[in-house]
Design brief:
This protein has 174 residues and is α/β, with parallel strands linked by helices. It has helices at residues 16-32, 47-56, 60-88, 110-120, 136-140, 142-150; strands at residues 7-12, 35-43, 100-108, 125-129, 155-158.
Length: 174
């Protein structure tokens, strides 16, 4: 017997396809009664990037402000995408917003952070979008590919839709 899906970890890179993948997370939550936890990982700066930052921004408080701004900017974008999604979704699906039990932006290494949060939150399913460009290795995206390979829970990688809307993310009404 397959385990029930009670908690879904929806991971976003804030791309158009990520918004499309969110539709699947909402659909699956409706069908299973699961809660959704939203996660955006802001990639941690490499040592070279941190060294460059220290070289060009000598003032420590300015460096910290820059790093803090990266997280805040991702939070704002995530909030805007969520607001837009719930604004244009079919009226009968608007009640699904109550299934969002968490929404966080975390700095870290994407694959490890996604897997760690899935375990900490005791999720039963990970949902994320495929990368937007290229052939298989870039189509899937290295983060999606690594999560798929290393995850010990079912993981749904949503491919790009054939038709991409020109307005905001690829969010379509049902």
């Amino acid at each position: 017997m397959l385990p029930e899906v009670n908690k879904i970890l929806y991971c976003t890179d804030l791309s158009k396809n990520a918004s499309y993948a969110f539709q699947y997370a909402v659909y699956l939550a409706r069908k299973t009664g699961a809660d959704i936890h939203i996660l955006k990982v802001v990639e941690e700066l490499s040592s070279d990037e941190r060294l460059t930052l220290q070289s060009y921004i000598l003032n420590q408080s300015s460096r910290e402000e820059f790093l803090h701004h990266r997280i805040n900017s991702a939070r704002e974008q995530l909030q805007q995408r969520q607001d837009y999604f719930w604004e244009v979704i079919a009226p009968e699906d608007k009640d699904m917003r109550t299934k969002i039990v968490g929404c966080e932006v975390v700095e870290g290494y994407p694959t490890q952070t996604i897997l760690k949060r899935a375990k900490e939150l005791d999720c039963d399913l990970i949902v994320m979008g495929a990368h937007e460009k290229g052939w298989f290795h870039t189509l899937l995206g290295s983060v999606a590919k690594n999560v798929l390979r290393e995850s010990r829970i079912p993981t749904l990688i949503v491919p790009r839709p054939e038709k991409v809307a020109t307005a905001e993310p690829a969010i379509q009404k049902h």
